[in-house]
């Protein structure tokens, strides 16, 4: 199963938890693993306490790790100005696996599934969800 979302780029952080829970409920699988995957090179998925202070902190940390205005070889080769987005995405991952127990995602009290779009422009992003049944 999958769904699409529109992003603003520039470290747009979007809470995906509700959409993933809807897909899990429709699957009727009670126990197993839920894979969340984004087939895009300039975004990632992770878990985060989805609150404004932590969202701001994460964006500031990412700017320190891979500054948008730094000189990237990728920008020189392709001229698209999103070298920083590729670097940031490489530190995080395009996938996340969450256990499923009794039809519910096994997340910590404050954990939310998020997508971070690092690119330098708005995008349509595809989120692929695969649920495997297990014990």
How would the blueprint of this fold be written?
Layout: E1 2-7, E2 12-15, H1 17-27, E3 32-37, E4 43-48, H2 52-65, H3 73-78, H4 83-91, E5 95-101, E6 104-105, E7 112-117, E8 123-133
Antiparallel strand pairs: 1-8, 2-7, 3-5, 3-8, 4-7, 5-6
Distance linking N and C termini: 21 Å
Biggest sheet, spatial arrangement of strands? 1-8-3-5-6
How many beta-strand segments?
A: 8
The share of residues in helices is 25-40%
Shape field: elongated
Radius of gyration (CA) equals: 16 Å
CATH class: Mainly Beta
**Residue runs with pLDDT of under 50 for 5 or more positions:** none
Please give the CATH architecture. Sandwich
The structure class reads alpha+beta
What's the average pLDDT? Answer: 95
Total of DSSP H or I helical runs spanning 4+ residues: 4
How much beta, percentage-wise? 35-45%
Describe the largest sheet: 5 strands, antiparallel
Q: What fold name goes in the CATH topology slot?
A: Jelly Rolls
CATH homologous superfamily designation? YjbQ-like
Order of helices and strands: EEHEEHHHEEEE
């Amino acid at each position: 199963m999958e769904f699409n979302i529109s992003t603003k780029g520039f470290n747009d952080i979007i809470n995906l938890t509700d959409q993933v829970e809807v897909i899990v409920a429709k699957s009727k699988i009670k126990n197993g693993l839920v894979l969340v995957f984004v087939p895009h090179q300039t975004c990632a998925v992770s878990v985060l306490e989805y609150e404004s202070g932590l969202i701001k902190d994460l964006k500031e940390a990412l700017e320190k790790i891979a500054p948008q205005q730094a000189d990237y070889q990728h920008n020189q080769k392709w001229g698209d100005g999103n070298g920083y987005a590729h670097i940031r995405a490489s530190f995080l991952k395009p996938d996340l696996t969450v256990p499923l127990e009794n039809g519910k995602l096994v997340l910590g009290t404050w954990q939310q599934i998020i997508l971070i779009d690092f690119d330098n422009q708005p995008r349509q992003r595809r989120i692929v969800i695969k649920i495997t049944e297990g014990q």
